[in-house]
Amino acid sequence: MLATLYPWIKALHLVFVVAWMAGLLMLPRLRIYQLNDEPGGKLFEEMKTASARLRKIILTPAIIMVWALGLALAIIQAGVWSEGWFHAKLALVLVISGLHGYFVAVGRRIDAGGADISSRQLRMMNEAPFVAMIAVIVLVIVRPF
């Protein structure tokens, strides 16, 4: 039964991966715009609201579904747990999840007016999820080890 569901689970997993990555690429950009305005300013408040909506509507559901569906796929194909490419992929997904948490935490500090990061630093960090995603895709498709 689960084996017949595998392609559907995989398709949904990929849909939520795309949503998660889109959100992770967007969230720091919204925060960069927010940092370029004074706390309480019009743009600051608009970006604060947009970031909260992005988290609530896209990021949180996406990360939950990516993990749930990804684990379901790994359970269906139990043999992957012993493969090197899977270990590397899992490590990178943990890194991306950590970046997700970091961006949310930084955003809360920005919302409170206590930003401890510059827009330049955030702009540079914005690339990290994309680079990690490229590595994950190569690992899953090529399975180099």
Unreliable spans are none
Structural class: mainly alpha
Count of alpha/pi helices = 5
Broad shape: elongated
- The proportion of residues forming helix, as a percent range, comes to over 70%
- Termini Cα gap: 30 Å
Strand content bin:
under 5%
Query: Biggest β-sheet: count, sense, barrel?
Result: none
Taken in chain order, the helices and strands follow as HHHHH
Q: What is the averaged pLDDT score?
A: 96
How would you briefly describe this protein structure?
By secondary structure, the protein is an all-alpha fold.
Describe this structure in words.
The protein has 145 residues and is mostly helical. Helix content is 82%, strand content 0%. It has helices spanning 2-35, 42-76, 84-111, 119-125, 128-142. The longest helix has 35 residues, at 42-76.
SSE layout and pairings?
Layout: H1 2-35, H2 42-76, H3 84-111, H4 119-125, H5 128-142
Keywords:
145 residues, mainly alpha, 82% helix, 0% strand
